[in-house]
Specification:
The chain is mainly alpha-helical. It contains eleven helices and no strands. The termini are far apart.
Amino acid sequence: MDIGAFLGLEQLTWGVLIFIVVAAFAAGWIDAVVGGGGLLQLPALLLVPGITPVQALATNKLASVFGTATSSVTYYRRAKPDIRTALPMAAIALVGSFGGAAVATILPPAAFKPIIVIALLAVALFTAFRPQLGQRTLLRFHGHRHHIAAGAAGLAIGFYDGLIGPGTGTFLVITLVTLLGYDFLQASAKAKIVNLATNIGALLLFIPHGAVLWVLGGILAVANVAGSYLGSRMAIARGTRFIRVVFLIVVIALIVRLGIDVWHENVLPWLASR
């Protein structure tokens, strides 16, 4: 069977397909534990011969919707997150994600990446040197102030997800831990619900533009769901300490990944112009 012809990507081979399916499974696992699975899934999709960046972004979002939906349900059943915070935050994040995806069509993401790298570096150092951070829930706001802070965070991170994307789940977790005061397990549970909304928000823009590769996205969605289910079960079973360790690993990987982009997109052009 010619898999490339079947999926509408003439140069796609079985070897490349197997590679991106494995990447989608691993991405689902990482996303379920602490977010940041796009670090694997999106670059893997960009290796598919003939695929455009917009198609890769859109297809990545399609697979991620199913993965985050799976982990959201698993966390909800076992960790019982407070949906009075998660659902309004998710609704606002969806709007932010749609807006970010719209801006992404006219504004180069490279303009924002240096700021994101600096922010991630600060987050990594802050988390590494505060071992008690996120060990238990100590809410910093109450009543309307709590929901306003959650909504503002959801809008900003949703916008980032639509505009750039990598590390959205990671930013959600660290915001829920440091700004709102949740432990890592509860933060991860709420982050999945919000991340599901941001993925849907971006898809609402990509689908009308015909950017989604539905069959390939469906195959990756199955792998993403399997990884998400396994990851969420492991995170719930092993608890906050396990999530914190994975969180730091993913943040460091994200710093390296975006740092390489900043070097090629910002630093090298600046040096060449001197």
